[in-house]
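Entry 14. Structure prediction run on the chain below.
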Amino acid sequence: MLGVCLDEDKAAMDAFIAKNGISWIQLFYADVDKRHWDHPLAQYYGVHDIPSLWLVDQDGVAVDTHVTAESLDGQLRYLIANEGSAQRQ
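Output returned:
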C-alpha cells in the first residue's frame, strides 16, 4: 500500500495520518510548486479524482485504476487465486 498525498500542507497531512492510524507510506512533495494537482505523480499518471485507488499487480502493472472499497476484496481474491496474473484465461 502506498499513498500519494496531494495536500498542500504537510502538518495537515501528518495530523490526518495520526488521527486515522494510517501506517503506509505517503508520498508528499516537498516543493510547494509541485503539490496538489501539480504533484509529479498525479501529472504523470493522469490522476483527476481524489481519492483515486489503483490495484497494481506483483510486476508493477496497473490492473485496475477504478478500484472501489466494494470491489477490492473480489479483485484481490482473483489475483491471489491466479497467482498474481490479471490476465483471464
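The two ends are 27 Å apart (CA to CA).
Filed with the rest of this week's runs.
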